[in-house]
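$ run holo --ligand "2'-O-acetyl adenosine-5-diphosphoribose" --emit tokens
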Amino acid sequence: MLTGAGISAESGVPTFRGADGLWKNHRATDLATPQAFAADPELVWEFYNWRRGLIGKVTFNAAHQALVTLEERVPAFTLITQNVDGLHLLAGSRNVLEIHGNLWKVRCTRCGRIRLDRNPDMGRRPVCEECGGLLRPHVVWFGESLDPDLLGRAVEAARISQVMLVIGTSAVVQPAASLALEAKAAGARVAEINLEPTGQSGTMDYALHGKAGEIVPRLVEP
Ligand code: OAD
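-- output --
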């Protein structure tokens, strides 16, 4: 399975490229970059503090829950998510690869230490308890590479899959977008579930258009 921001939209989490992808007149995709952080870490932290506050108040929805049910039924199940909101883990999914990181983790830009911090407001310029270096969100920003180990596991899961559901992603961010093609090339059936057609709809075996919270639960009905 591959999920993107659309699966959390019905939980109240803004997507990146939709009309709600704007924060204080900044596009979310402009702030989630190493350049933005280097130029103005306080602005980027303000944006992430806002996202942490928002995500701390929402919960998983019927689509996340349906994937938990599916995992209980399917012997080998891997959930690759581009989402950093942690809602799949909160819902109870177990084999989750958070290839873009997790909003509740912070990483020191000096010593590299990663820790979990569920405090919604990290302040203007949070620093590492160990070395005093500036902390950053432990998420993958535009222009940054994915953790090679996690990416390798995601590619492997795609290659050995028999069925891949691609849920709520605009399928424009690589390498995540190529995972469905990997799966298909290796013989899997692939299905897209999205509010609207995407650039990948044509290569899908099935394209189901509508809300993830309505469609995904119907797919796992006994
Ligand atoms: P996008 O915001 O690009 O796309 C969200 C997709 O979800 C769109 O195709 C919508 O049509 C669809 N959608 C919205 N609401 C939906 C609903 N209720 N049911 C089904 N589909 C719905 O988000 P991603 O594809 O996840 O990266 O974006 C990929 C990456 O780009 C993100 O992980 C993030 C972003 O910048 C990083 O943070 C590194």
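-- notes --
The domain at 2-109+143-220 is CATH 3.40.50.1220 (Rossmann fold).
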